[in-house]
Amino acid sequence: MWNGEIKVITGIRRCGKSVLLFQLFYDHLREQGVREEEIIKIELDQRRYYKYRNPIILCEYVESIVQNNKDRRFYLFIDEVQLTAKIVDEVNGGIEVTVYDMLNELKAYENLDVYVTGSNSKGLSKGIATEFRGRATQIRVYPLSFEEYHFCLGGDERKNLDSYMLYGGMPRVPALEDAKDKKDYLSSLYSELYMKDIVERNGIEREDILNDILDFLASQISSLTNPTNIANAIASMKKEKVNPTLVLNYIQYMMDSFLIEKARRYDVKGKTYFKYPNKYYYTDIGLRNARLNYRQYDSGHIMENIIYNELVRRGYSVDVGVVTDRTGGANAQKEIDFVVNDADKKIYIQSAFQMDTEKKESSELASLMLTKDFFKKIVIRMDVPHHFYDDKGIFHCNLIDFLLGRAELF
């Protein structure tokens, strides 16, 4: 608060951004003695606020309040700021004006603290700090973590984890008791909200291909892929040529809407990134399962997606690791599920639902040993009752302990 920057709250629609700002933070301010009229609320997805989608009208309205009350401090809340339009300012030489220009202007008022929410990074621009001239704080909101989900439900941890792996963490889900209601809710979010948003905002002409890409990525979470592979798979199914560039653009639209995330491959020894292939994860595993109509429940891949989301939620930088096995001159590339960085600290993580055979254990641990360095190495698994270090110095951690913060990573 009052740090001289615009607070930009981002995340997938229905993840709780508006509740965070318009209910929780609003109540906090009121409890601190801030008067109701000192909190200016503009909800751009509500009809009575449509006129403020014009950034000049929005700016003039706010200025009329703060300029005439310079002895008082005000808070400005704008919901779904990506709904604002670019307009031409005829009064000032016909220049194009965006909401960034107006908010930068409002930011200059010392008696105004500005907060905005947005559900689309394209609408907010990828370079938020640049658009706001380096004076913006971005706050990313995610669906519920398992710890939050378990807190909502109470009771048995394993039972709640099974539910979380199926239905995910969209905030309304824990309040729905019937399984059919949960599934119907997640399916309606997909069809009535996310799909319409992506199609309308980006002027998508091939909605059928967009759907095919979403299905492909949902079925391939935790698997390496690239736009060319996806285009070829869809082309084979549709019996028509599909342009990989079109696929790449459509994937970017999904990422802009915070529906999926991309994890890049990192050469641990060479310390460089590969351009392709990458991995894609769903921001919420329940939405992924709903996309496939709950037909493809693969515990290992779902677990990996949940671990990725948890690491990103905690603020870590997360990549997919690659190490080369030169044993016998084979030069085979082996994968480390996650290379996790926290500033100057680094750890390696493997996701293994269970390691019930020597072959499986050897396969999971081999790539960790190939790094031949001293960074902490972790295997997160479901088939151990508690965490421990093995004789190779590798930390074995139960998934629930990891998700509930009972196992120290760094």
What this model shows, in words?
With 410 residues, the chain is of the alpha/beta class. 40% of the residues lie in helices and 21% in strands. The chain contains 15 helices and 17 strands. The strands form four sheets. The chain has an eight-stranded mixed β-sheet with strand order 10-9-12-13-14-15-17-16. The longest helix has 24 residues, at 179-202. It is globular and about 75 Å long.
**Spans of at least 5 consecutive residues with low confidence:** none
What is the number of beta strands? 17
Beta-strand percent range: 15-25%
Radius of gyration: 24 Å
Provide mean pLDDT, rounded.
92
Backbone shape? globular
Spatial separation of the terminal alpha carbons: 30 Å
Number of helices: 15
What summary fits the major beta sheet?
8 strands, mixed
Please state the structural category: alpha/beta
Spatial order of strands in the largest sheet: 10-9-12-13-14-15-17-16
What is this entry, summarized?
The chain is α/β, with parallel strands linked by helices and 410 residues long. It has 15 helices and 17 strands. β13 and β14 form a beta hairpin.
Jot down its keywords.
single chain, 410 residues, alpha/beta, 8-stranded mixed sheet, 15 helices, globular
List the helices and strands and how they pair.
Elements: E1 6-10, H1 17-31, E2 39-43, H2 55-66, E3 74-79, E4 87-89, E5 95-97, H3 99-106, E6 112-118, H4 121-124, H5 128-131, E7 136-140, H6 146-153, H7 157-167, H8 179-202, H9 207-219, H10 227-238, H11 244-256, E8 260-263, E9 265-267, E10 272-273, E11 279-282, H12 285-291, H13 299-313, E12 317-325, E13 332-342, E14 345-352, H14 358-370, E15 376-381, E16 388-389, E17 395-398, H15 399-403
